[in-house]
Specification:
Elements lengths: L13 H7 L2 H4 L3 H17 L5 H19 L12 H13 L12 H37 L4 E6 L2 E7 H26 L1 E2 L15 H7 L4 E2 L3 H6 L2 H27 L7 E2 L18 H25 L12 H25 L1 E2 L1 H9 L5 H10 L4 H18 L8 H7 L7 H4 L2 H6 L9 H19 L1
Parallel strand pairs: 3-4
Antiparallel strand pairs: 1-2, 5-6
The structure holds arginine.
Length: 460
């Protein structure tokens, strides 16, 4: 029998039961549901709304159910619709009449809002831990590649020499902001909605703070309509997760490029690569491609949630049940991607000489030659023009700028003297850029240090 069958004369059609039920996916929140119910019933007892003997009995039975679910002893029932009513049914089966007191002063509307917040809070912690792991790998790789010179690109054309550490520390900054965004999101999620009731709270003298404290919430929601209607916390998380996926996807794109024969900058470990069923020579970067591809699923979840919510009148509407699968898929996808991505990154081989050779080609020191002329008193616009002509000359002769003889150089500008070769060496180009944020080893060391301090803070 359904927990709400009182006003009905007929059973629901089994097709409707199936369509309406969420137990297939929301059973994942069993733990949060039980912990929430346990806190609620303790509060009912302490506030004298039910007897403390009843409260204790219910609480004990709830924890036994939790244990049995974890041991795989319990099968949920589609006819009981969702995780909330499944657990309440099991409780009543086990302890009879007393179990029927659990739902006093509560609605499934505030219950599901509570469970979902608790569930996503846990997921944020798990995703944050994976991001911290990724950041530690980036710091380690950067420390080992402070002088690994490679070309920096704009328009995917070789632009100026940088180091691999500089490039990797750019990703460090992105994922650092992602962690900070998750911290922010957590703070707004960590607000306790129970006590909102169906929409208009309750007349029972409940103590909402007591429940909040047991469940480690920072605050309680301030409006009962908002408490049951709000899904911003999920939308905000989906948006944080989408940005994480943008970052992972761009990084993956580079890994895919870098592992091609054309670049040859890195080689992925066999354990994180795949072969072809027809071409015996192939070694494919499937892990990175999947991460790039899976970003679409996470953006899709964000779109689903925004669309589900945008036209809903206050307060709860059943449409909101659609929030769960989208969020579950988003958190699972991000966790799955990070787990593989971290290992793939940690085990890849870096081909320093390929990176250096690429930086030597493509006139990546042209800006530095122009800057050299400026130091000798030539206005920048003129020096830009002069070096442009020198580049055109070198393209014709198929040589690099530093391969020009001094006489050849002086044909373009009388301001050039023998010191030019040192000034336009790749090492000088990189290590001359000592400004904060620049690629010089000493600048990167500063940001590695601040990165370490940030991670230590986050691990607390
Ligand atoms: N399974 C429902 C959901 O996930 C729980 C809340 C149901 N509330 C209701 N009034 N039908 O949204």
């Amino acid at each position: 029998m359904k927990l709400w069958s009182g006003r009905f004369k007929k059973e629901t059609d089994s097709l409707m039961d199936d369509f309406n039920a969420s137990i297939r996916f929301d059973s994942r929140m069993y733990r949060q549901d039980i912990l929430g119910s346990a806190a609620h019933v303790r509060m009912l007892g302490e506030c004298g709304i039910i007897s403390s003997a009843d409260a204790q009995l219910i609480r004990k039975a709830l924890f036994e159910i939790l244990d049995d679910i974890e041991k795989g002893k319990i099968e949920f029932d589609v006819a009981a619709e969702d995780i909330h009513m499944n657990i309440e049914n099991i409780l009543i089966d086990r302890i009879g009449q007393v179990g029927k007191k659990l739902h006093t002063g509560r609605s499934r509307n505030d219950q599901v809002a509570l469970d979902f917040r608790m569930f996503l809070r846990d997921e944020i912690k798990a995703i944050k831990a994976l991001l911290i792991d990724l950041e530690s790998i980036l710091l380690k790789l950067s420390e080992n590649n402070l002088d690994t010179i490679m070309p920096g690109y704009t328009h995917l054309q070789r632009a100026q020499p940088i180091t691999l550490a500089h490039h990797l520390m750019a990703y460090f900054q992105m994922f650092r902001r992602d962690i900070e965004r998750l911290n922010d999101c957590y703070r707004r999620m960590n607000v306790m909605p129970l006590g909102s009731g169906a929409l208009a709270s309750t007349t029972y003298p409940i103590n909402r703070m007591m429940v909040a404290e047991e469940l480690e919430f920072e605050r309680i929601t301030e409006n009962s309509l908002d408490g049951v209607s709000d899904r911003d916390f999920a939308i905000e998380l989906a948006s944080c997760l989408s940005i994480i996926m943008v970052h992972l996807s761009r990084f993956s794109e580079e890994i895919i490029l870098w592992s091609s024969l054309e670049f040859g900058f890195i080689e992925l470990d066999d354990a994180y690569s795949t072969g072809s069923s027809i071409m015996p020579q192939k070694k494919n970067p499937d892990a990175a491609e999947l991460v790039r591809g899976k970003s679409g699923r996470v953006f899709g979840s964000l779109m689903s949630l925004l669309t589900v919510m945008k036209g809903l009148p206050l307060a709860y509407n059943k449409d909101m049940q659609e929030d769960k699968e989208a969020m579950f898929d988003a958190v699972d996808t991000v966790k799955g991607c990070l787990m593989v991505f971290n290992r793939m990154l940690d085990t890849m081989k870096i081909n320093k000489s390929c990176m250096l050779n690429a930086a030597k080609g493509g006139f990546t020191n042209a800006t530095d030659l122009a800057d050299y002329l400026v130091k000798k008193g030539v206005p920048f616009r003129d020096s830009h023009e002069i070096v442009g002509k020198m580049v055109a000359y070198c393209i014709e002769k198929k040589i690099a700028l530093e391969d020009l003889t001094l006489e050849e150089m002086q044909n373009f500008s009388g301001h050039i003297s023998n010191d030019v070769y040192d000034e336009i060496s790749l090492d000088a180009c990189v290590n001359g850029r000592r400004v904060p944020g620049g690629p010089a080893a000493e600048s990167i060391l500063v940001s590695i240090k601040s990165g370490k301090a940030f991670l230590d803070e986050q691990k607390k």
